[in-house]
Amino acid sequence: METDAEQIRSEFESELLRTANSQALKDLRNRYLSRKNGRLSLALRGLSKLPAAKRPHAGQALNQARQRIETLLAERQQDLETHESSQQQSGDPLDLTLPGRRLLIGQAHPLTQVRHQVESVFRELGYRIETGPEIETDFHNFEALNMPEGHPARDLQDTFFTEGGYLLRTHTSPVQVRTMMSRKPPIRMVAIGRVFRRDSDISHSPMFHQVEGLAVDERVTFADLKGTIAAFCQRVFSPDTKIRLRPSYFPFVEPGAEFDISCALCSGSGCPTCKRSGWIEMGGAGMVHPAVFRAVGYDPGTVSGFAFGLGIDRIAMLKLGINDIRLLFENDLRFLRQFPQ
Ligand code: DAH
Question: pLDDT 10s per residue in the chain (341 long)?
Fold first, then answer.
């Protein structure tokens, strides 16, 4: 029996050296120490077959072997764990000397930049930013703006109609109507947003952006309109920008006007962008028509107001020096990156 204990221990030790991982170590432990059929347990049970005189000695030898095996198992277990965890780390080596990955910093789309600038100019002038739905009713887009059913001006705006009598707003002017219907004067508001018309070429996109302004109070005059447009254009373009107003017709204003700015590229001396005229057409404006005031429940006898509308995309094109509106909507990064904030 003594040799038995010796043999078991030395076989165990040589097997132990070959255990490569925790699982193999677990199997080894079972093979030697499992209560049911581990080699040591079996040997201990075999003691009963020995002559009584030899039993204590053999038993002692087996118990010592067991202790030794247990100690070796614990040590090996420790070694394997340390080894395995360092291996896990070296599988994903961390090179602290590598330069960091450069973060790509995004930027606002040029149209968004212009939009923010326009909003901040009007906020400075005391205007409130309003919004309205892109899917509008006939009433807000046409009827309340003095374009009743059958009015020829409706044809000027090639409208996209949706289901149920709704339409995609053809301009931002319906936001005037919504604002006046929900608030009482005095009002100073601007609305910026998408508008839609069936039109597409180098200078027209079926979806484009407008800014609409409205001021209503007692004794608002055409001079206020002119001063506001000038202040706005000078802040958005340059302080020496000149403006001019030309008589024009829009059903929702009377008198109505179109306004131009002195060409930002040639400062008025004439270039291809301004078609050699020195002026660039910007938008429409005028004094709010009494019929519009009546439609929203205001008394045209006590309040007056001015309104104006112009294209945001046009402002962006002038500021960026591009002549194809479609570039603004293609989202080609090579184009967009040329206009950092
Ligand atoms: N809504 C007009 C358009 O889209 C632009 C416009 C003209 C707006 C005159 C106005 C205005 O507020 O007074 O063509």
Answer: 445 888 899 899 999 988 888 888 999 999 999 988 899 989 888 888 888 888 898 899 999 999 999 999 999 999 888 877 777 766 666 777 788 888 888 899 999 999 999 999 999 999 999 999 999 999 999 999 999 988 887 876 689 999 888 999 999 999 999 999 999 999 999 999 999 999 888 878 999 999 999 999 999 999 999 999 999 999 999 999 999 999 999 999 999 999 999 987 788 788 887 889 999 999 999 999 999 999 999 999 999 999 999 999 999 998 888 888 889 999 999 999 898 88
| C-alpha of residue 201 to centroid of ligand 1, in Å | 21
In order of 36, 148, 160, 194, 288, the CA distances from 155 in angstroms are: 97, 12, 12, 20, 21
Q: Is the CB of 253 under 6 A from ligand 1?
A: yes
| Pair of tokens at residue 271 | 């270039």
What's this model's pTM, rounded to 2 decimal places? 0.71
Tell which residue, 63, 79, 61, has the closest CA to residue 19: 79
Whether 286 lines ligand 1, by a CB cut-off of 6 Å, is yes
What are the residues whose beta carbons fall under 8 Å from the beta carbon of 67, sequence distance 6 or more?
A: none
